[in-house]
Amino acid sequence: MAAGHRAIVRDRMFLKQVPRPRVFRDRSNPLEDLREEEIFARYRFRPDTIYFIVDLCQAAARDTGRCFAIPLVLCVLSYLRFLATGAFQLTVGDTVNLSQPTVSRVCRQVGQVLSALADRYISFPSGDRVRQVKQQFGAMAGFPNVVGVIDCTHVSIKKPSANPEDYIGRKGIPTINVQAVCDASYRITSAVVMWPGRTHDARIWRQCALRRRFEDGDMHGFLLADSGYACTRYMLTPYMNPVGEAQARYNGALCRTRVTVEQTFGILKQRFQVLRRKLNCYPERACMHIRNCITLHNLGIDRRDIVAVDPIEPNDNPHYHRVDVGDNMDGRAAREYVTRMYFER
Fold first, then answer.
1. Per the CB 3.0–4.6 Å rule, which of 119, 225, 306, 329 could disulfide with 300?
2. Tell me: the pLDDT tens digits for 18-53?
3. For 278, what's the count of Cα atoms within 13 Å in the CB-facing half-sphere?
4. CA-to-CA distance for 108 and 261, rounded, in angstroms?
5. Cα–Cα distance between 32 and 179 in angstroms, integer?
6. pTM exceeding the 0.85 threshold for the entire prediction
7. DSSP character for 182?
8. 3-state secondary structure (DSSP) of residue 191
9. What angle do CA 158, 91, 78 make, to 5 degrees?
């Protein structure tokens, strides 16, 4: 046994002395070898949009003095593949012939560059766009003066070492609770990506900067929410126990309009499977990836490079965007006013 053991050690020492052959990885551009449908299936974007994202990252990297050792198009493709599939970095690297450590590094770098673009693509409507959003929402079910619909969704993450109990959501797994407001075209106009999964939806809204803008009178119109939120003069919720046909019609119109935010979450998670599965990273990095998914989701809508969405023809009926709710009116009074004025027959 001793002689055999010495032979094994001798063989291992010999193998260490033999120089390993250098491996030259094929780092050609996959966009030049695949058909457009194959590119979309793998990276969730058409080639033109991918090159647009590469140009955005190139400009942002130049502004910050950041440099990439790997061709930037491969870095972006690696990150898009990671978001699109939620696969392990080793698997992602195999698709573009990069090693796992390299994929880890470029995903972090591209993620940081894209996070600097969030404010450019996630913004609440203003100016003429507000009128258009109100008209589009009104055309859905006749609910007037709606500037957005709000809800929260949970994204699973790696269990953090600090205060892990704060992140355990309803399903008993660590999550980030993501608040989003969207418009009628499934574009996310406000996103809060920072709260542990245990945080209640209403608390996230109470601490939200958008809420302060509504409170201060900077924003005009209604947000539609479910019964988990408080009913206010600018945020309308359904009647818990509707009485009469008018309240039932109000609830029906609110539900048919508010479902847009649920559909938006479905589109977002279907496009970026990493949100549906699990982000195998700690909260800070996970929040960056979630925010980048939202940025890319909106970018895809802007460039008409997303799932087919039937356009909603705006109706120029003035009652969709002219509702006289006084600043001193409380939530229940505002809800009763809207019900009486627009849902009684």
1. 306
2. 555 544 455 668 888 889 999 999 999 999 999 999
3. 9
4. 29
5. 38
6. yes
7. E
8. strand
9. 85
